[in-house]
Amino acid sequence: MSTVALIDDHESVRLGLEAACARDSQTVVFSGSTVVSYLEWRKASTAAPADVVVLDLTLGDGTTVTENVRSLVNDGASVVIHSVADRPAAVREALSAGAAGVVSKSSALDDVLDAIRTVAQGEALNNVEWASAVDGDRAFADAQLATREREVLRLYATGLPLKAVAERLGVAYSTAKENITRIRVKYVEVGRPAPTKVDLLRRAMEDGIVTADEAPSAR
User: Which of 90, 112, 138 is the last residue of a domain?
Assistant: First the structure.
């Protein structure tokens, strides 16, 4: 029997999942509308992390998918995204941040329970349907970065100043700067602009150039 936390800003969704989990002998230890409230409950109660957190893809408190998934994973929980099926970009972001898998809100409750049990046992979810949606998402077209550009992006996006990036790679500062400029241009050309350093980190994580563990806030 696993412990489950439900985070969704729609109370009716939480109540339905809570009832289903109870019938399935899963213990719901927390039900709330934000990741922050879950983490505060954890701290106040000194409870162990839930085995599985069922997380709505988009919450109403202004937090991002990456922030929410990473906070939960870093806290020790496995995350199952419970979402509608029309946001492949956000799904890819969630998986890149460390979510164990995704189950659609249109799925039968039995399928949601199966996903919870699977993840609680440390097994991978079958995300073929979602992988297809993500792969078909034109917003994530390959920017076709060169090897050196990927190296520059990885170092820069994970927190090094551009001067330090140049020194690490043994190139001139102007060369590193030109690489960043070309990277931004390439992302714009495929419809994935990255005007800020935070945006570059997001693109690098989406493309597997930077892992969640390497991201600055994960350290």
Answer: 138
Q: 1 or 11, which is more confident? A: 11
Tell whether 149 and 68 lie within a shared domain. no
Span 53-87, pLDDT tens digits: 999 988 888 888 888 999 999 999 999 999 875 56
What residue numbers bound the domain in which 201 lies?
Answer: 141-218
22-30, long-range: CB within 8 Å, 24+ apart, which pairs? 24/113, 24/116, 24/117, 25/1, 26/1, 26/2, 26/113, 26/116, 26/117, 27/1, 27/2, 27/3, 28/3, 28/4, 29/3, 29/4, 29/5, 30/5, 30/6
**Beta-bridge partner residues of 104:** 83
The total of other beta-carbon atoms located within 10 Å of residue 173's CB is 14
- For tokens 């019938």, the residue is 23
Does residue 218 surpass a pLDDT of 80? no
